């Protein structure tokens, strides 16, 4: 559950309903001041069950929040009397695996136009405000700056903020550590400004603020799925939604009643959406959509690539997919695309197009369209009173998804080893998840002790093959709430 609270240093007395990470005890060492309140918010990571790779194409997705959380503590202190003397002091503490701590102090004037007291820079100029050494700060400060600009909140170069992040969501594992910190930071900041409880008008925009900040200020391409999943998730439920503007939320499915269990297994290969494979597949999907419209392969304008699946009925779109694939180039160089169709393929995030690169149009379009269909089939099966065979039907959809990733070179040799070890009785199916190229492998079993032992034995064999010690391969099996539960306010009096 995303929670916000107002903390005071006086006697600490807490309403314990809900759960969040322990409040850091050594506050003074992180720069906090006993004279001012601290605002707190917490967000879970998420597990991409199906569809996540195609969120940028408007795909349907199914997500589940994990039990690990990221918490943000924000304090606004006195205004500096010295012109341009305000700072943002940041501390980030990761408790996921080996404990790590990062610290930075950034002058507030960094984010303002020519040191003008209250005029924030334009979005396109805020990205360069972060050096390579403190790029991690952009994930925390970026959403705060978006919240301020979009709500006409006047910040000043004289402001002094202290922010502390604590997290048990591991980075680079494909469980949305970036979305978790962005949403937690946004919520804590809105709480500080007294906005987080103002109906849902401001609050509901938090996932979009965070999504926009990651793409524009951090400069890492991503779809909106991660932020929506962390924000709207529900304990022991699967959350389906369509990645459109506005997002179309589906009926959450109580997974625990289906006698099924989802496992997330760390492949130990670091995942990063900013990698070239993800960016190339995304760009190729947008190129494909652009070609479909320019060549009039369909008589309709496509708001998103996956809107094809909403325009035509289920009997038509299989033939339609085949027709589109036959008429799309298998691959095209960036130079060829620019010469024929121009510089703009409709996705600012992956511009400019690299002239020297080869873009695999057909496979990337096929991945997006068929992933959207697979998610909808998965959702339909979950609505039934499940029998054993339905578990295998769901598993087939997971395996087909993994095959599509592989066609687009979105896998890795290490994840293939893990997937093969999971191709055994009692495991219905497995797939690489999220943006691929490492990160998390998802597998589906029934909810039994026997199935649990099979999964743990596969992890043990994988660890041995990779020369990893006990406990080095993390197993994600718990769940938690996202932000769809009514917001709670805790007072420490």
Characterization of this structure:
The chain is an alpha+beta fold and 493 residues long. The protein has a domain at 3-256 and 481-491: Ribosomal Protein S5, domain 2, CATH 3.30.230. 34% of the residues lie in helices and 20% in strands. The chain has helices at 123-126, 136-150, 177-192, 206-218, 225-232, 276-294, 308-311, 314-327, 334-341, 361-382, 388-407, 413-421, 449-465, and strands at 3-7, 38-50, 60-76, 87-94, 100-107, 161-167, 237-242, 248-249, 253-254, 260-266, 332-333, 358-359, 427-432, 440-446, 475-476, 489-491. A hairpin with a 5-residue loop joins strand 7 (237-242) and strand 8. The longest helix is centred in the C-terminal third of the chain and has 22 residues, at 361-382. The two termini are 23 Å apart.
């Amino acid at each position: 559950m995303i929670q916000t609270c107002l903390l005071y240093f006086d006697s600490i007395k807490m309403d314990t309903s809900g759960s969040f990470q322990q409040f850091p005890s050594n506050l003074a060492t992180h720069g906090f001041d006993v004279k001012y309140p601290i605002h707190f918010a917490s967000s879970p990571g998420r597990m991409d069950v199906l569809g996540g790779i195609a969120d940028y194409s408007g795909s349907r997705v199914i997500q589940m929040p994990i039990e690990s959380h990221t918490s943000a503590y924000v304090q606004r202190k006195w205004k500096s009397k010295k012109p341009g003397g305000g700072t943002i002091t940041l501390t980030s503490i990761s408790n996921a695996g080996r404990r790590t701590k990062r610290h930075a102090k950034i002058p507030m004037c960094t984010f303002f136009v020519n040191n003008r007291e209250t005029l924030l820079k334009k979005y396109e100029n805020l990205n360069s405000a972060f050096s390579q050494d403190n790029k991690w700060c952009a994930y925390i400060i970026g959403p705060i700056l978006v919240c301020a600009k979009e709500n006409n909140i006047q910040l000043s170069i004289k402001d002094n903020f202290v922010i502390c992040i604590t997290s048990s969501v591991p980075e680079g594992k494909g469980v949305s550590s970036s979305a978790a910190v962005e949403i937690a930071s946004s919520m804590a900041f809105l709480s500080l400004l007294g906005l987080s409880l103002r109906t849902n008008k401001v609050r509901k925009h938090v996932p979009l603020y965070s999504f926009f900040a990651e793409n524009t200020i951090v400069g890492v391409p991503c779809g909106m799925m991660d932020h929506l999943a962390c924000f709207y998730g529900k304990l022991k439920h699967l959350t389906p939604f369509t990645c459109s503007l506005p997002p179309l939320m589906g009926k959450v499915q109580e997974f625990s009643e289906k006698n099924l269990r989802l496992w997330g297994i760390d492949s130990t290969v670091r995942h990063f959406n900013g990698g070239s494979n993800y960016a190339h597949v995304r760009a190729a999907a947008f190129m494909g959509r652009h070609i479909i419209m320019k060549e009039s392969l369909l008589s309709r304008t496509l708001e998103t690539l996956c809107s094809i699946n909403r325009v035509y009925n289920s009997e038509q779109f299989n033939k339609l997919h085949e027709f589109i694939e036959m008429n799309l180039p298998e691959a095209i160089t960036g130079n060829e695309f620019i010469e024929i169709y121009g510089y703009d393929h409709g996705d600012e995030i992956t511009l400019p197009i690299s002239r020297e690169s080869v873009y695999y149009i057909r496979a990337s379009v096929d991945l997006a369209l068929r992933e959207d269909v697979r998610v909808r089939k998965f959702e339909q099966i979950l609505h039934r009173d499940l029998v054993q065979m339905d578990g295998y039907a769901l598993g087939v959809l997971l395996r087909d998804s993994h095959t599509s990733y592989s066609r687009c070179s979105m896998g890795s040799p290490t994840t293939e080893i893990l997937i093969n070890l999971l191709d055994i009785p009692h495991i219905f199916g497995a797939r690489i998840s999220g943006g691929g190229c490492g990160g998390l492998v998802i597998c589906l079993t029934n909810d039994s002790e026997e199935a649990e032992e099979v999964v743990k034995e596969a992890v043990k064999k994988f660890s041995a093959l990779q020369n990893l010690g006990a406990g080095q391969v993390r197993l994600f099996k718990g769940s938690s709430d996202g932000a769809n539960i009514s917001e709670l306010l805790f007072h420490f009096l």
